[in-house]
Amino acid sequence: MSQPLIEAFGGRETIGRVIDRFGAYVEADPVMRAIYPEDMGPGQEKVKLFFEQWMGGGPVYSQQYGHPRLRRRHFPFVIDDLAVGRWLRYMRQAMVDEGVPDEVQRVIFEAFGPLARHMANAGEDVPREPLGDVVLQ
Ligand code: HEM
Fold first, then answer.
1. Is the pLDDT of residue 21 over 70?
2. Whose alpha carbon is nearest atom 35 of ligand 1?
């Protein structure tokens, strides 16, 4: 792919729409909904910023919240294999819905597959308290 990933994806606006749709799929699935906090808004905004950064759109996420430490940040939420599978399915479906090109999805899910499996923590003796946000100045 010759253009930056974020441009091939459709830019920030497309990231916003994909994460909103992903959120709607989670809301409609009682198993997934139970994992997420009551107010999904702030978390969804962080995921948008993280995706922008991950796709090369600039380090706003890390400027605001520090190193992603993704596995650690997920410890307060018990994530099992079922949740991993649904996360990937809903994220994929949201990208299909929003018309993200197939070859871009392929690149993304080659990375997201292992990353999502790495997030599984059910049955592990990990600290369950939130990491807490250090908002960098
Ligand atoms: C595998 C299944 C996954 C589940 C069930 C899951 C669930 C969650 C939950 C419950 C939150 C907290 C939302 C909130 O505080 O409102 C969260 C946050 C987040 N997730 Fe996931 N997640 C998964 C995988 C992933 C993957 C693969 C990525 C990256 C590609 C990711 C990126 C994020 C980010 C960036 C945040 C915000 C973290 C922060 O700054 O606090 N998640 N996720």
1. yes
2. 47
